[in-house]
Amino acid sequence: MDALERRSVLALALIYLFRMLGLFLIMPVISVAADGINGADAAMIGMAIGIYGFTQAFLQIPMGMWSDKIGRKRVIIIGLLLFALGSLICANANDIMVLIIGRAVQGAGAIASTLMALLSDVTREQNRTKAMATVGISIGASFMLSLVLGPWLFDLVGLAGLFYLSFFFSLLGIGLIVFAVPNIVQHTFRRDTTPSLVALGRVLKDGQLRFLNISVLLLHGSLTALFLTIPNLLINQFDLPLAQHSWLYLAVMGFAFVGMVPLVIIAETKGKMKGVLIFVVAMLGFSALLLQWAPQIWIFGLLLWLYFIGFNTLEATLPSLISKLAPVGYRGTAMGVFSTHQFMGSFIGGLCGGWLLQYYSSSAVFWAVGGVLLVWTLACYWQTPPKQLSSLAFSLTETNDQAVSELSAKLAQVQGVEDMQIFSDEQTAYLKVDKKLLDKDALRQIAPQINL
Question: How far apart are CA 307 and CA 361, in angstroms?
Fold first, then answer.
């Protein structure tokens, strides 16, 4: 990457980080902190935690498409302003319904797909995979930081202070998008990062993609539901003050990252993706189920560690699988649908977890989460093992019909090229390849500009 690309990618990754921090900082504390708000009960608190996912899920793809018409930066600034407005509403909420409205407004600033489209605009083809990986790391880091920092910051500034901090993060994001990211006058529609209505039906009908979408929905639903009851359980059963929860989460998340790495390596490099998926989903289910019976805090921490090994492993491998299994040339649409299910999972988890906690007990939440995940383990068993394919793309030097036809015929003869799509309007060719079989020399002769 050149200096301008590095600056742009770093700025966009920080915008992701700040925005997700603003959404997630309250997760480890709100079930305790919201008790003093008028009208708050477990069901309404669950709604307050998860409602952002509802507006996020339904607006991120439309806002990404809107950015094609009015410009990426404008949509991102509008989204960050909505996020700032929602943060102010939440910070000044004395009633649970006002808090829910504020969280919904926060989620309405749904700029994930627009940020990815802008990332595509400001990076060259050969650097785009690295750029997307950098942004992916920032998203994962935001959640881990939220768990660790949330209880500590709440002890310092209170719930309103967390939302004012979110407001400040949104202003930082606006500053970054205005001053650190270059102005792109001509936005290029790229199907690897931008959702396409043409491909939406095909993506929704794909059985393997549907399985992955439901998996991420259940994953984030389980997380949201569990954190409705975990903070109170740590306080009431183990006498651990809320301010000290940060130390537990820091240890759990740190060791969970270490535990995740070998599983990801086995899944990605050893071709054991299906076996790893079955193992980690089962581990998620059993650990969630057993949390309610932990007699001592170190056993609770051990079970939570196992849960987050599974959670982090799926967070790393599911997007990779989506990329591999997406219809060739339509990764942007597949990732958009995947993210929509992810946010919808947070909404369903908050809604159902709060309802179970309100009308039954915390044990009902653990039973429901554990039971659903163990049933889903059986669904994993019946899935066809995914092919180990990779996505490649390169820019076209000629886009007339004859040149495209000749290129297509040549690419079809290259060993290891499993599928392709060539889009003249985008001046890009997309390939699905088996890298173990790929004849790299033959491919380079046809397309020397490709980055292998």
Answer: 21
- At a CB cut-off of 8 Å and minimum separation 6, what does 220 contact? 53, 342, 343, 345, 346, 349
**Rounded CA separation 168/18 (Å):** 9
Residue 124 backbone class (left: φ over 0; alpha: ψ -120 to 50; beta: rest): beta
* CA-wise closest residue to 156 among 48, 35, 30, 242: 242
CA–CA gap between residue 338 and residue 333 (Å, rounded):
9
Residue 395, classed as helix, strand or coil, is strand
In the CATH scheme, what is the code of domain 1-194?
1.20.1250.20
Q: Which residues on neighbouring strands pair with residue 395, listed in sequence order? A: 428
- The alpha-helical segments, DSSP class H, found in 30-179 are 30-33, 42-70, 72-91, 96-108, 112-122, 128-179
Instruction: Classify each residue of 84-94 as buried b or exposed e, where b means 16 or more C-beta atoms within 10 Å of its C-beta.
Output: bbbbbbbbebe
Domain boundaries, the chain: 1-194, 198-388, 390-446
Average pLDDT over residues 75-82: 94
pLDDT digits (tens, 9 = 90+) for 282-304: 999 999 999 999 999 999 999 99
SS3 414: coil
In contact, 109 and 52? CB cutoff 8 Å: no
Is the per-residue pLDDT at 10 higher than 60? yes
- The DSSP output letter for 36 is G
Strand order of the sheet with strand 390-395?
Answer: 390-395, 428-433, 417-423
What DSSP string runs through 299-352?
HHHHHHHHHHHHHHHHHHHHHHHHHHHSPTT-HHHHHHHHHHHHHHHHHHHHHH
Give mean pLDDT, residues 418-434: 84
CA distances from 274 to 29, 181, 319, 321, 381 (A): 35, 40, 14, 11, 8
- Residue 152 confidence class, pLDDT cut points 50, 70, 90: very high
| 85 pLDDT above the threshold of 70 | yes
Yes or no: domain 390-446 corresponds to CATH 3.20.20.140: no
Distance, CA of 100 to CA of 109 (rounded, Å) = 15
CB 51 within 8 A of CB 104: yes
Distance CA 191, CA 167 (A): 33
**How does pLDDT run across 163-207, given as a tens digit for each residue?**
999 999 999 999 999 898 887 655 555 666 666 777 788 888 888
This prediction has a pTM of 0.89
Could you tell me whether strands 417-423 and 428-433 are parallel, antiparallel, or unpaired per DSSP bridges? antiparallel
CATH class of 198-388: mainly alpha
Residue 389 confidence (pLDDT): 80
